[in-house]
Each structure stands twice: as C-alpha cells, then as structure tokens.
Amino acid sequence: MHKLSVTQGSTMKNTDIRRLFYAHLLCVLSVILSTFVPSFFLESFSILETHLTWLGICSVSVTAVNLVLYLVVKPNVSSKRSSSSHKVARFLKCCIYFLMSCFSFHVIFVLYGAPLIELVLETFLFAVILSTFTTVPCLCLLGPNLKAWLRVFSRNGVSSIWENSLQITTIASFIGAWLGAFPIPLDWGRPWQVWPISCTLGATFGYVAGLVLSPLWIYRNRKQLTYKNN
Amino acid sequence: ALMTGSLPGFIDVVRNLNSPVLLEDNVIGQAKAAGKRMIFYGDETWVKLFPKHFVEYDGTTSFFVSDYTEVDNNVTRHLDKVLKRGDWDLLILHYLGLDHIGHVSGPSSPLIGHKLSEMDSVLMKIHTSLLAKERDSVLPSLLVLCGDHGMSETGGHGASSAGEVNTPLILISSAFQRKPGGIRRPQRVQQTDLAATLAVGLGLPIPKDSVGSLLFPVVEGKPMREQLRFLHLNTVQLSKLLQENVPSYEKDPGFEQFKMSERLHGNWVRLYLEENRSEVLVNLGTKVIRQYLDALRTLSVSLSTQVAQYDVYSMVVGTIMVLEVLALLLLSTPQALRTEAELEVPLLSPAFSLLFYLTFLVLWAIHVIVCTSTESSCYFCSLSWPAAGGVMLLLSALLCAAVSALAKMCRARSLLRKNPARPHSKWSELELLIVCGTLGHVLSLGGSSFVEEEHQTWYFLINTLCLALTQEICRNYFLDDGDEPPRRFPVEQGLDCAAPALQDSGGYCVPRPDRVCKRRLPSAVPGGRQRWMVLASPWLILACCRLLRSLNQTGVQWAHLPDLGHWLTSSDHKAELSALAALSLLVVFVLAQRGCSPVSKGALALGLLGVYCYRVAVGNVLFPWRPDSRDISKGIIEARFVYVFVLGILFTGTKDLLKSQVLAADFKTKTVGLWEIFSGLVLLAALLSRPHNLPVLASSLLIQMVMTSFIWKPLRHSTAEITVMHYWFGQAFFYFQGNSNNIATVDISAGFVGFDAYVETPAMLLTAFATYVGPLLWACHLVHFLSSERSSGTALSHACFCYALICSIPVAVYIVLVSSLRYHLFIWSVFSPKLLYEGMHLLVTAAVCAFFTAMDRTSITAS
C-alpha cells in the first residue's frame, strides 16, 4: 500500500514535469516567434533597429502565452470562491500589480544610473519587458499575494515544481538583465551596446535559459526534491 | 619635450610636481654654452629647470590655479622695456592664465574670450617691435608661438584625448617667403620636432636625445647647400641616437636610408664643387632632400617606438613577491577569521628550513646568472648585494610560509573529513554577492574600458548591494510573523534543506542549522515605525547615491555630459552653490557632533563656520548679506583658523584614547575618542574639498548613520560583511568626489589651502588626503563602529585582516595583468595611471591597517 502510493506520487511528479516542460517550450517559442514573425508583416523590422517595436511585441506575446497556459494548465487548483465579481476584482488587482512593478522597475533602473529625462520610453519598455518575464508568471501562478511571493523567493520556501521553476526563471531573468549591463562601458562601438538594448537582450536570454534549464534541473534532482504540501 | 626633443617617460608625471634641474641635453643649455643671452618671464618651473641659464628672469609660481590675471600681468609688464632694449638673443615668455582658466572653469568659460584677445594684443606688440628692429639688423628674427598642451572637455589636461594632445604651433619670421596661392593648410608635426628646428635655426647643436626631425618648411628659403647641411646634421644626430639604443641598428630601414642619402649627398657636393650649375644639380638636390626627409621620418618613428624598454627581471621579482604575500593572506583566511583571530605565520617550522635554504640558493644562482648575462641596465641588479640578498631572503621565507600554510590547511581539511558532524554552512545571498562582486571587479581590471569607467563598476556594485539588503530585510521582517508558521524551530530543519534554490551544490539532505536564520534570531522584531525606517533605508541610500552620481561625471566616455557640479560652479549659480554648501555644512555638523564631547562640539561648529568663511574669502561662495563682494584673497587666515580646530579636535581624540588605555575599563571614553578623531578628519575634508563636493561629504555621513542604525545593528551582519561593505562604499565615494583613474582629475589645489607658497611635504599630504578622503573616512568609521559595537575584541583584528585582504586582491591581480599587457596600446594612457592610483591606495590602506592594529592593541591592553 505504501509502496503503491510512492510510485503513484513519482508518476504524478513525472507527468507534472512533462507538463512543465511543454509549457516552458511554448514560452520559448513565443519569444522566438516574436523575433521572426513580425518581419513578414512589418517593413524593415529588426531587433536592433526597431528595438522598441520588438520589445512591445515580445512582451505582448509572452503575456498572452502565459495567460493561456494559466487558463489551460491550471497549476494551482485552490481557488475556492469563484464568483465572477471576485474574478474581476482579482484581474484588476493583477493589472494594478503589473503596472506597479513596471513603475518600480523603472525607478530601480534610474537609481542604477539610467538617464532620468532622456530615453524615458526606452527605459520604461525595458521595465515592461522585465515585468513580463518576472511579474506576469508570478501573478499567474501565485495571484496578487505579496506574502506568497516573498515566501517563494526566500530560501527553501517553494512548495511545488511550478513554484520552483518560477523561482529559477525569474532569478535567471534578473541575472541576465544584471549581466546585460556589463558591455555598456566597453568601447567597441557596437549598436547593441546602446542603453537599454544589451540589458533587454540579457534579460531575454536569461529568461529563455531559465525556461530551458528549470525542467532539466528539476528532472535531475527529482529524487531529492520533496515539497511540504505534497 | 619642447626643449630636449626627447619623449617623456610616464614617471615624469610624478617628478613634475617638484621639478628638479633638467640634466638632459637641451636647447637652452646649448644656447647657454654658445654664449647666447636669454631672458625669461613666466612660470617659475622654467627657472627651476634651467637655473643660472637666464641673464634676466621673473618667475611666477604656477600652482595657484585660481589666479588668472596676475600671472599674465607679471609677464606683460616687462615686455615693453625688454623689446626696446634688444640686448638679448632669446626671449621666452610663458603665459599661464589660459591654463588656469581651463583648470578652474573649463573651456567654455566666458573668461576665455577676454584672455584670448589679450594674448592677441601681446602677440601684435611683439611682432611689430620685432619687425621694427629687423630693419637695422642683419639676421632675421623668429617668433615661435606654441602651447605645451591642449585642454580636455573639462578643462584639465594630462590624458590623451584629441583636444589635449593637439596644440597650435605658429612660426612667424620675415625670413619666410610668402607663397602665392592663398592660405595653406596647417600641417601636423610632432612636438619633439620643435627642439631640433630651434637648434638649427639658432645655429646650435641639436640636443643629443632628441628624436624630432627638422621642420623642413622653416629652412625652405635657404640655398640648397645649407638645406642639405641642416638635414645632414639632423640625420647624423638621429642615427647616433639609434646606434646607442638599438643593438641591431644596421638593419633598421631608417639607417639604410640614411646611408643612401649620405652617399647621394656626397655626389651632390662633388657636382657642386665642380661648378656644375645645371638642371642636374637642382634635380639631384631635390632628390637628396626627399631622401633625407624620408630617412628622418623613418628614424624618428623607429626611435619613438624604441624608447619603451622594460626591466623584465625586476618586474618578475616584484610580481612574485606580491603574489606570495597574497597567497599567504588567502591561505590563512579560514584561520584568521576563526573566533580566536590568530594570524601566526609559521616560519620556524623545522621541516621547511631545508626548503628555505634550497630556495634561497636557487634564487641566488638565478640572480647571478641573470645579472651577469644581460647587458641592459636592470634596477634589481644595480642594487647593492646585501639589499638583493635581503629581497631573496624575504622571497624564500614568504614561499616557505605559504607552503606551510597550505599544508596546515590540508591537514585541517582532512581532520574535518574525519569529523562529519561539523555542519556545512551555505553562503547567504549577500555573501555570494560580495564574493562575486570582488571577483568581477578584479577581472574587469583587465579591460581598458573597464579601467576607464571603473566608477560605473562600483556604483553598480553598491546599488546591487542595497537591493540585496532590501531583499534580506523583507525576508526577515515579513516572514517572521503573520500567517507564515515559525520556520525557525529545529523540528523543521529536515524539511528546510529540501529545496535548495540557486545553489549549484544543492541536493544533499544533511540536517544543517540555517546559519543565516540563527544569526538573525536574537534580533527582536522592532516596532512599527522602526520597521518602516529599516525598510526605507536602502531606498534612501539608493536615492542619495543616484544624486551624487549625477554630481560629478567622471571617466572617459561620458565625462563630457553636463553634470550638476558644472552647473553649480558656473559663475551664474553662485547663490545656489552657497545655499547648498551651507546646507551641507549644517548636515555635516548635525551628524558629526553626535558622538563628540562638548568641547569638540564647539570646536567643530567653529571649524565648519571657518570653512564657509574660507570659501567666501577664496570667492567660491557668497555671504547672503554681502552678495556682491569682489575682494578675493587666498584665504590663508581663514584656512589656518580651521587647521587649528582640526588639530585641536584630533588632539582631544588622541588624549581620550590614551586616557582609555591608562584607565583600563573606560570603554566609553575610547568610543568618544575615536569619534572625535573621525570628526576631526571630517572637518579637514570639509576644508579641502571643493564647495560643490560638500554634499558628497554630507551624504557620506548620512549614509553611514542610516546604515549603522537601521541596517548593521538590527540585522547583525558579520564583521567580514561589514568590512567589505565599508570598503565598497569607500571606493564608490572616491569616484563620487569626481576622481577617476586619470591623473588629470587629481585636485592639486587642495595642497595649497592655507599656504602662501608651495611647500612640498604638506602639499603632498593634503592632496593625498583630499583625493582618498572617501576610503579614509569610511575606514575610520569602520574602526569606530566596530569598537563601539562589539565587545568580543576580535572584531577589529578580523576587520583589519579583511580590509587588507580585500584591498590587496585587486592590486596583486592588477600588477600581474599590467605586466602581461605591457605592450597594449593603452598601457601608458590607461593602465599606468591606474597603477599609480593603486600604489597610492595601497599606501593609504597600509596606514589604515596600522591604525586598526593600534586600536586593536589598545583594546587588548585595556581588557
């Protein structure tokens, strides 16, 4: 009896990991498609020259994929009250949280040394895309609940593989954006060294790397991972 | 370079501040030897460089950069008299005003236009009188107008941007023929060419170390024979220099061209002597001239590239020594950071005595072989034998100590393995950030752009540090209470290790006490207001740093951007600057008086008032009740008034320290004494820093206060973390002040505060203090904080060790990097100034560590 439950748990876990992997594959595809598809519709589209357009398209597509995944996969089935007014309020709250995160990222970039008056649109779109990579998955998975966020992002606070992968992708995007600032002072004179292109590219690469790596990492360490709630 | 024609070495920058007698062969010396009568007016440096060369001179001291009318009037007032007299052969005038304006208010200052038109009128005066004089003399005279350097976007010089290294050179003489065909385009020549040209023009021998070539257009008006003669002289001199410096000079293309043109010249002379006055002679002559000019150019280029020679052997010895010390420090880290804090260097262990003697002998043998085999001069070989022997002894002793420390560590490691009960401790995010930041900074020193923009690295690091602190605070304060179950009980430890995030070593399930949690456990969760202050403090620090960052733009790539500092120092915004300076001084007083005794409080207040009066007297700021006073002095009385208070406060502090040492148990007196020393240094810094940099000082004190009361005390960081944070903030404040890794940004005016003339030792000390005021103040604060907080007694020695380690890692790695990059294109313009800064920083660090050790001793004797 005991053995049976263990095997059941492990198969459940394996299917979970598979679902996670497919979901992440979809996210990666959305990033890749947002770089290549628009060039069929838009004249003279390229990541470097029409960077802002790319940022907008990428952020919209990643958000859409995340929302669809959330509705289809439903990783946390624990919403008890589901009246429509409650749902609307929750959605509005999510929107406000998203905007707040955009603005606070903007403030942080300015504190890091981004120009205050010039290039406001560029800086803000960078904040938007970083929020897309980090805040939107958090909102989808955890809802507008700051306590839960803090729990997930503190040491040893995750309670499912979904949260674990969320932690990894978010931190990977932050580290990518952080590392993306390093080429800016170099005197190579390349077009991608201009603020904020290297940072957005760094964030994107970090996000994609997090998406790809997190299922693999969870799969490798699946024996050791035990969650409190499971 | 103007007078000797040789290339300046980099170390000449250091020598520049007190110019000794120029011993190299130069034009002035040659002219003196030829009995020419020379007159000089202008910068005193010339008189020091060429003592007893001038029959008449009037030197002006050049270091009061805020004075830009008197220095020039001092020159011009002699002009009429001298021009009328005409009993001289060479007249040198050095006008300083433009340089001073550039230093003080930059190239876009409104003063520059006036100064330039003044210079124009001076030039016209000289030219007309020279023309008048030429009517009754045989030889034509030559008027040379040149600048010794240009001006960067900020008004300084000494770096290598295009604006700084390009200067005009104008030669005016009636001997030149006016060519038809409008204005000719100016040509580019080397500064070193001027010495050769002047020597030829004056009929003097060319200085023997000159690498310049004759400016040919100057002698174009002469007959063919003389032209050839001049060119021949110049090439002979250059090829001699080549023979001295290059062993394989015969294969040099320049030398071959020289031989060829000499042969052609011989042919031409033979034809000339045969009285062959045909077209052939002229054609051959022009051909010879072209050949000579080519030879000159090639010789000049190959000489210029030959000048940089490296003393590889001495460099290797020095690098090995530095690396050994670093290895010793690194290897003894675990030992030194234990609670006992013992750093014993095992020198006398008998097992290593054999190794020691062997290394010593091998090194000695290498030394003898190297020194007997090389011909080129080598600093280390020229040392006396006992000195070299001492260095060898030190090297081998260090090696043995490092090896034995390594062996000890291996032994400890194997002991640990036998005893698995010792818990593994994981790094917290903050420690991870500190290690990554240090490593990243060290690695970034290998790139020239990162060295130029090092301030960006530090700003980036302290920003990240603040964000990491925010995260830590949030975790501590929001997860402790509320609906989150208390996860701090040992019951849950088995679960705690289950999901290691981020760490690559994750996956093991050893029950371990969470060190971070344990350390933070005793901190009682403070009440509401305190909590919000703690939460807000990193953001306050971030905002402060952002403001300071836009105060002074430094570096290279973005240095030209407008910043608040320039806006404040421009003469239209004097009122704003005065308000800001007064406000900052007030903040400094409020923050610095907290820990002082009443006497020092009064002294501090008076001293800060004195600082403001000094700035008014110098003319930087205004009194609100006298908005348009114009009397500008050097402010010597005011500055000395402040010095008295600085010395007084430092003296009280030292007295308190000594008292605490004598009356063993008096802990509070010691804290007060340390704080008084700190506030004395703050007062000195307030006096020396430029008025627009006073906010830097104020916010440094503010950040220290905020960090102390809201971050370090409640969160209970370890000594090592606090030390590293102090070091990082110190480095960032070094750049917030407007410093950079470029010699041009050193503010030498700080060395003249309160002095009539240039006095070497205090000027050097004051300039060094003003430059390194950021790191010094933070280190001083660290001493005070640790000795007031910790009663354990080992905190200070831990901090001293960490400080020494964290400062020596970049220096050691940088020395290795620079040695391996010594043929890099930017070695002189970027890497060498940084090396000078690092060397100076190392001296400052050594002083700080000595202070640490002294404090540690007093605490040991007191307890």
TrEMBL record, chain A:
Pathway membership: Glycolipid biosynthesis; glycosylphosphatidylinositol-anchor biosynthesis
Listed transmembrane segments: 21-42, 54-73, 94-117, 123-143, 164-182, 194-219
The keyword Endoplasmic reticulum is annotated on this UniProt entry: yes
Key words of the record: Endoplasmic reticulum, GPI-anchor biosynthesis, Membrane, Transmembrane, Transmembrane helix
Organism superkingdom: Eukaryota
Subcellular location: Endoplasmic reticulum membrane
Example of a GO cellular component annotation carried by this entry: endoplasmic reticulum membrane
Protein name as catalogued: Phosphatidylinositol glycan anchor biosynthesis class F
Taxonomic source organism: Oryctolagus cuniculus (Rabbit)
Highest classification ranks of the organism: Eukaryota, Metazoa, Chordata, Craniata, Vertebrata
TrEMBL record, chain B:
Transmembrane segments: 312-333, 345-367, 387-409, 575-592, 604-623, 635-652, 672-689, 696-715, 763-783, 795-815, 835-855
Record bears the keyword Transferase: yes
PANTHER family named in the record: GPI ETHANOLAMINE PHOSPHATE TRANSFERASE 2 (PTHR23072:SF0), PHOSPHATIDYLINOSITOL GLYCAN-RELATED (PTHR23072)
Molecular function as annotated in GO: CP2 mannose-ethanolamine phosphotransferase activity
One of the GO biological process terms: GPI anchor biosynthetic process
Protein family per UniProt: Belongs to the PIGG/PIGN/PIGO family. PIGG subfamily.
Membrane topology: Multi-pass membrane protein
Keywords tagged on the record: Endoplasmic reticulum, Glycoprotein, GPI-anchor biosynthesis, Membrane, Transferase, Transmembrane, Transmembrane helix
Location in or out of the cell: Endoplasmic reticulum membrane
Highest taxon, organism lineage: Eukaryota
Matches recorded under InterPro entries: Alkaline_phosphatase_core_sf, Phosphodiest/P_Trfase, PIG-G_N, PIGG/GPI7, PIGG/GPI7_C
Pathway: Glycolipid biosynthesis; glycosylphosphatidylinositol-anchor biosynthesis
Entry protein name: Phosphatidylinositol glycan anchor biosynthesis class G (EMM blood group)
Keyword Endoplasmic reticulum: yes
Sequence ranges assigned to domain GPI ethanolamine phosphate transferase 2 C-terminal in this UniProt record: 531-846
GO CC annotations, alphabetized: endoplasmic reticulum membrane
Name of encoding gene: PIGG
Native species: Oryctolagus cuniculus
Pfam family, one: PIGO_PIGG
